[in-house]
Amino acid sequence: xxxxxxLLTLLSISLLSAQSGKISGGLESYLxxxxxxxxxxxxxxKDKLRSMNYFNMQYAYKDFSGGLQYEAFLPSAFLGxxxxxxxxxxxxxxxxYKKNNLDITAGYFYDQFGSGLAFRAWEDRQLGINNAIRGLxxxxxxxxxxxxxxxxxxxxxxxxxxxxxIYGTNAELDITxxxxxxxxxxxxxxxxxxxxxxxxxxxxxLKPIVGIYSSRFDVNAxxxxxxxxYVYKEPDARVANAxxxxxxxxxxxxxxxxxxxxxxxxxxxxxLRRLENIQMYSEKNLEGNLYNTGVMNFVPGLTxxxxxxxxxxxxxxxxxxxxxxxxxxxxxxGQFDVYYNLKRKSILGGKYGTKLALNFSRWHGLDxxxxxxxxxxxxxxxxxxxxxFQDVNFExxxxxxxxxxxxxSFIDLQYNKLKLEGEGEMVYADIAMLDLEYKLxxxxxxxxxxxxxxxxxxxxxxxxxxxxxNFNHHFNVFAGDMYNYGNEIEKVHYFNFGxxxxxxxxxxxxxxxxxRGGLLCVGGVCRYVPPSKGVTMxxxxxx
Length: 543
Description:
Blueprint: H1 2-17, E1 22-34, E2 49-61, E3 64-76, E4 86-99, E5 102-109, E6 111-113, E7 119-121, E8 123-124, E9 129-130, E10 133-142, E11 146-157, E12 160-161, E13 165-174, H2 175-179, E14 184-196, E15 209-221, E16 224-240, E17 243-263, E18 266-276, E19 330-342, E20 354-371, E21 376-399, E22 404-416, H3 417-421, E23 426-439, E24 445-455, E25 462-470, E26 475-483, E27 493-503, E28 506-515, E29 518-522, E30 525-529, E31 532-542
Antiparallel strand pairs: 1-2, 1-31, 2-3, 3-4, 4-5, 5-10, 6-7, 8-9, 10-11, 11-12, 11-13, 13-14, 14-15, 15-16, 16-17, 17-18, 18-19, 19-20, 20-21, 21-22, 22-23, 23-24, 24-25, 25-26, 26-27, 27-28, 28-31, 29-30
């Protein structure tokens, strides 16, 4: 089947290229060379030199388009990525027809229903995620009032496909246009995604098809907005340590409410969420894996995504699953943001104005009682259990002069290391950061970061710094270090220095340094990065 789609795609592109059309594409290549590091006891793997390469090409002609992506992991992917990514192969390909209200795709495709809690297929190379669906997807739009989507296929697992079949339907209704409303914008949606997988089980209640449903409603009125989503997952067996636990089946649910107010110079937003056993995988045996392989829905950690290195030592990852050993069944909490711009030439805003941002997030486990003998539990709907995480941070962005800009940030953090990592204690940390950027003549600029983290728990105090010099818009150099000076047992410098060069749509970077082990998060989704040391090079270009 793979060879058939490849032949069909290449044949279609070859035929279409004879006509007038548009060809586009790109190449991304990453290389790492690992070195032994006695300071952190890191032992380089046997294949010290590794590369990850992605080449994609698309062709569009009138109502038709097609594309493919070739990937090469030689001899295998970087440490921390799924070991299934190795060697090289044609990874994805598709053919698409789109005209008027009809949109048909055959091959691999990405999509998302609602917020993604019910279904999301996407690619993020930094996280090592590519859970595209290979199959057939049809979309039809009825006068921009009702949009329908239906698909069937298998999910990508490395260079293979899931053993399960996945089905999905989605409906989006624009109530505003349907009722010809003027002052209100109303929108509703409904989704269903099913997974069919044959499983040998003595439990007759365990069905081969497990579905997940989503209903949602959005409203906008003037400067106010609100959206609500409810997701329900049908009863399913659990998996722990690759063992199917099917004596008791558990359903799951998610509640998400987002609301806020915005006008010029002011923005207020709040997100409340409750999760209970809502994670969905394309194969049961993949449940809880470290690489986000086989994940069918999008369950991010809803906290502020910090840009500074010390602020990312203790990051929160969503807790949507069930663990009787750790007595966890989900999470409940929320996030609150306030953005305010002090006007130019005001008393507090100064000559250039000032941007202020306040963020608060807190997450708890669900308050629940467990019967370990019967392997059942009872969870409270709204009562929070043990605190998992809290982040209170305040940021000031200020232009001090025509040449100097500053970012000042303060963070008060609480991190339950025992509940989130399985060992340790509650960590209370305070973090302060200063970022200064100064413009120099002839398009040159310099930037410096200074950070400090103080805590009496875990690895104690840290200090970090970064210096970056831009010779022009194309070329820069940088050097940074994170130092765990408060650690009485082992003080380690996590240094990193290198350079980048950008020309048109091409970018080349080269760096050397020591990587601290921990979670790397993008958009609230995380993967574990092991400690390492060595040279890293990346190159990207598009045409």
